[in-house]
Fold each of these.
Amino acid sequence: MASNVNPTVRRRRLGQELRRLRELKGMTAEEVAERLLVSQSKISRLENGRRSISQRDVRDLCGVYEVEDHRIVDSLMQMAKDSRQQGWWHSFGDIPYSVYIGLETDAASLRVYDPQVVPGLLQTKQYAEALIAGALPETASAEIEKRVQVQMRRQERISTEDNPLRLWTVLDEAALRRVVGNRSLMRDQLEQLVEQSQLPHVTVQVIPFDMGAHPGLNGQYAILEFPDAADSSVVYIEGVTSDLYLEKANDVQKYSVMYEHLRAQALNVEQSRQFIADIAKEYAR
């Protein structure tokens, strides 16, 4: 499970505080960059938590912002130190979506919409292997195995009895009908999905084909919310070469409203569970 210090979350909190100090000083990121002889993009990456930040960076920024309270400086310096520690996922080497894993590890709740596949937190090992191999055909078997291991480790967030992740997922019927691997594998996957949907902290709903057009047709996304009020919610959109993280309140609100529409249009929990079970039986024939 997660350590007491999550470097990804520490970077976000530190970046938010540095942005607040800059805005209190009435300076733009460009003006700060000019003062420190660095690129504006570096300042932006430090503030959005996408870049590791050193204690020297914090010291220099506090100097520019004329922070005189040593307690504030010391606190920020400690956050910078914590943010450079490694989370459990770093032991697996270079993981393309490591920022997301860091956020997911510390999240209190996660709302997911997926139109194509069963979400990673609910996948069987065999489904995950077949999915990764099919989606990344040029990937070496060792890399596929590493990604599967990370997937299984991530699932500890919903299998643990100690403060499990509150997961709400809305699936399109296509995710249930797409045969990943083979029919036997799909049957096992859907049967596990039915079982997992009965956990008190996991909710699964399905939008059947005959529901027609709905707000999720633009693609997959996830909304992460955190236990600490200081950590803003994040909308995560997975990409092929890069991922998108939206943290502005207006963006999060728009996606949250869209998710409520998805929930409303989907089958209810009991209907969804039966719908999945019926398709699982089809795969058994």
Amino acid sequence: MLLDCVIIGGGPSGLNASLVLGRARKKVILFDENKPRNAVTHESHGFITRDGIKPSEFKRIAREDLMNYPDITMENQRVTDIKKENDAFVVRAEDGRRFRSRKVLLATGLKDELPAIEGIHQFYGKTLFSCPFCDGWELRDRPLVLISEDNRAFHMAKMISNWSNNLAVCTNGNLIFSEEQKEILIRKQIRVFDDEIAALEGESGRLAKIKFRNGNELFRAGGFVTTGLTQAAPFAEVLGCKMNNMGGIETDTLGRTNIEGVYASGDNSILAPSQLIIAASEGSKAAIGIVHDLVNEDF
């Protein structure tokens, strides 16, 4: 059977794209390896009607919605390979089965790479986060830290100051601020610590203090960290998709990549900001683009 579209990635982008395609009477398969980037997150925010929902519960409700549409099939397994054969894409699943499809949507997302600091993983997703728009409200008015090793620190410090006026920035031994930026931070009463971090300490996921290698300590109740971001799957590169200067998959407004028949949506294409509602909307737009193209080809 020739499918209309194979969707790789079962996050909010892939789920919403499946919904739009299913409602357009297109035969689709959604592949979901179930290794979401937000697995460490206890609550997701910023999505109207779903504010504060657990990511696993969001996915459960979404998959229930998709079950109402007979042309949508969900496969709980990994895709291992994609290649173009004549006018169709051949997608190989982990169990060895091959699926032929007219279109492919990459909604595979990104992976976070945390700084190599002892203890950081036990706090990430609990009291240490990457997005103030997602989690700033829960940390409002607390003494916060921003841990950043690159030039995103100045922008992030400005954003975080919207939720707390008690902020310190730790660069873990990296000199990343210009003199002008330092002067601005000082005027805003934001302290900068350029010392190397030895470890983060606290209990039950609650950050309590940052210990520096020089023996000093900084007491904080939570904060944010700038993470490295990499593609969670290699398929964009395998298919020859053009990447933007931030490492995301370059697309037009309806998710089309430079490779005909290949679309991308969600975090893997826009990179930032990363929110459920944005990823879901990107999936919807890409699905609309796919339907437009399928209908025009068949008309």
